[in-house]
Structure of Hydrolase:
Amino acid sequence: MLFAADFHAPHGLSNPHVQTLLPQLMPRASLRYETELVNLPDGDFVELSWALPAPEHPRAPICLLFHGLESSAQCPRVRTLLATASRMGWRAVVMHFRGCGKVPHRGSRTYHAGATADAYWVISQLASRYPNALKVAIGISLGGNMLLKLAGEQGGDGLDLAGAIAISPPLDLAASADALNIGFSRVYQRRMLTSLKRKLARFESSHDNSDPEPTGNKRRRLDTFWAWDNEITAPMNGFESATDYYQRASAGRWLDRIELPTLILHAEDDPFMPRQLFTRLPDPSACVRVEIAEHGGHVGFVERRGGLLRSWLAHRVGEQLRSWSRVPALSALDYRVPRT
């Protein structure tokens, strides 16, 4: 069902681009990580970053986070949410998509918005390692789309998860590719494509490349997500085209089939998506609660409390984690981002 989120942007800070960029400027959460490489069935691996200190009890609840496009455990948004879960006594960990951690990945496949197999494998490994621990997954942006698609694919008992939280997921990938090619949103598109091109160049330098055209020339022409996904993402991952990829990887078409308790947080003014996004999609199942704020930008949701700018997302996610566990409630100010 659709509900109004209780987020209210501070006066003068409601612009969607201001909200989108503010988390990058706020103090970073103080957090240490321990790195683990988890081997995958196809010979590649994913990198896990575990927040420290970790709970000692094996039944401590687990918060597994999936980051967004070209993000990592160093992203301020990721650190804030992991720090929130860690302070609540959860075992907090982020799974890096292939090639997004510190160690270059081995295989020829890339990650994408619909690649659910790696997440499924990691969740199954956590289920084996911590069979009696309650587990919740959080997906940010692209990671949120992937998580919702995974939940739709696996049904109510296909995952060892008590719940899922998706933050600003691009549920209609084609519509998001269009939105990111309009106005100031092109800045986000250009920045993410620059990172993707650098990563592709490093990958090609370590692998045989039989393409007769100089790859540098090809990469420079790919100046939109439509072009990039048509020429790179689709052929590297078994899709016929960008259109085929967007159709098959978008999680929006799975919303009515999700049987896992799920919370989706969305801003109507998200510059990565068209307005009234949910009118384009199937009605969510009874297990899915969608909270829509008038403002908030893309994974922004910065509010003012006690005279300070704070992450409403950390507050709302903390509330949801408490509702799915028996962890004692935090005091009213405990969700503030710690200063380094």
Observations:
- The mean pLDDT is 91.
- The longest strand covers residues 32-39.
- The chain has two domains: 2-172+251-323, 181-249.
- The first helix runs from residue 16 to 25.
